[in-house]
Design brief:
Blueprint: H1 2-23, H2 26-42, H3 59-80, H4 85-97, H5 108-141
Length: about 140
Amino acid sequence: MLQKIRQRLVTSLGSISGLASVLGSWQVCHNICLGLIVLLSVVGITITGMPLFFLTKIAVPIWIVAFLLLGVTLGLYYKKKCISRNLIILNSGLILAGIPFRQVQSYSSYFLSIGGIVAVIGLSLFIREKMQKKRSCHNEKR
């Protein structure tokens, strides 16, 4: 029971790390704002401006927290092996794609592309792993 709680906590920390890294990127925040504006316009609410613009002011601290949480997650993975390697790959890709530092803005498209590719690879490996487990469980029941 305690092991399951720990595993869920560690998995949650990894997910929070990935989410925070995505929010750390201005381009992603901009696209989320545009999506929010579109969704609100569908129900008849018109917004001019960016409703989530305040996130750009805290992008770097959010990204740093995400990076530190990824470090904690990696430490737990190497110590206990209780975290999905594929989710760590996914989170690493999201953190790489979401680098918000102005010093590397000229390379942001490269980071976004490489991070996106790594995230897609991690997600596809995770889905494949879940499908294989589902098939093996299904075959055992027969």
